[in-house]
């Protein structure tokens, strides 16, 4: 299965010149066989994807309707026609600060799949989730709610990427343990398998996100059944990001 290293730049950097510099450094890296996807702030997406077509691009969110009176929202049409093929959905910061619910994420997921974009569904994060076990339990519910009613044939062949991102590990410098991540990856696969069977489960890439840095990658590579990483802070540092790619 393909490996994905996805950089979530969040609301950084603050100027286009800095974003341009960072993308240009990342573009020069030896990316091996990994699919490196960058998710910059959406207002930089058009220019960056045009200037660096060798990289894969993604958006950090997408609304569930194609167009209409939805102030401030981002349409799938904009994302698709501005060089992006991937969309993060249900990121824990959106769940926490914007009260994005499992049902909202489910609507977004359906829409994004219909528009032939690849969703990166983030699970395990949200308000009040402080303990590892809570994040696992939340991941199970979030995943089930998101995919409910979607026919298996739509999700076959890696059409959806799942990123396990426990709240307490995001942006804290404290990644989850490899044991916890391996347990989460198994839980996610079992959950998909229980809905859709093992072929679809085995074909679905599962990533980990939460304070990923180059030093934890070798350990995770040995111990967990992952197909890559969703990287926040470290994706803003081309050198650290390059090491993550190299070691993955
Ligand atoms: C993220 O925002 O998806 C993330 C994992 O952030 P960080 O790597 O900074 O914890």
Automatic annotation (TrEMBL):
Pfam families: TIM. One of its GO terms (biological process) is glyceraldehyde-3-phosphate biosynthetic process. The keyword Isomerase applies. CDD domains: TIM (cd00311). One of its GO terms (cellular component) is cytosol. Keywords: Cytoplasm, Gluconeogenesis, Glycolysis, Isomerase. Homodimer. This is Triosephosphate isomerase. It comes from Candidatus Doudnabacteria bacterium RIFCSPHIGHO2_01_FULL_50_11.
């Amino acid at each position: 299965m393909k490996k994905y290293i996805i950089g979530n730049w969040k609301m950084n950097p603050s100027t286009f010149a800095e974003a341009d510099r960072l993308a240009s450094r990342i573009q020069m890296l030896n990316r091996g066989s990994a699919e490196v996807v960058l998710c910059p702030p959406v207002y930089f997406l058009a220019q960056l994807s045009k200037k660096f077509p060798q990289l894969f691009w993604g958006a950090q969110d997408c609304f569930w309707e194609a167009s209409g009176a939805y102030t401030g929202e981002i349409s799938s049409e904009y994302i698709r026609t501005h060089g992006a093929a991937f969309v993060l959905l249900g990121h824990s910061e959106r769940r926490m600060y914007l009260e994005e619910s499992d049902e909202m994420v489910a609507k977004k997921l359906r829409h994004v799949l219909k528009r032939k974009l690849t969703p990166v569904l983030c699970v395990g994060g949200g308000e009040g989730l402080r303990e590892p076990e809570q994040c696992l339990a939340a991941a199970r519910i979030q995943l089930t709610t998101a995919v409910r009613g979607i026919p298996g044939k739509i999700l076959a062949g890696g059409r959806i990427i799942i990123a396990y991102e426990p709240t307490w590990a995001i942006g804290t410098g404290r990644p989850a343990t490899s044991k916890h991540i391996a347990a989460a990856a198994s839980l996610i696969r079992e959950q998909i398998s229980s809905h859709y069977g093992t072929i679809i489960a085995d074909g679905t890439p599962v990533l980990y996100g939460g304070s990923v840095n180059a030093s934890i990658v070798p350990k995770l590579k040995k111990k967990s059944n992952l197909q890559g990483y969703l990287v926040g802070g470290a994706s803003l540092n081309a050198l650290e990001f390059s090491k993550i790619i190299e070691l993955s």
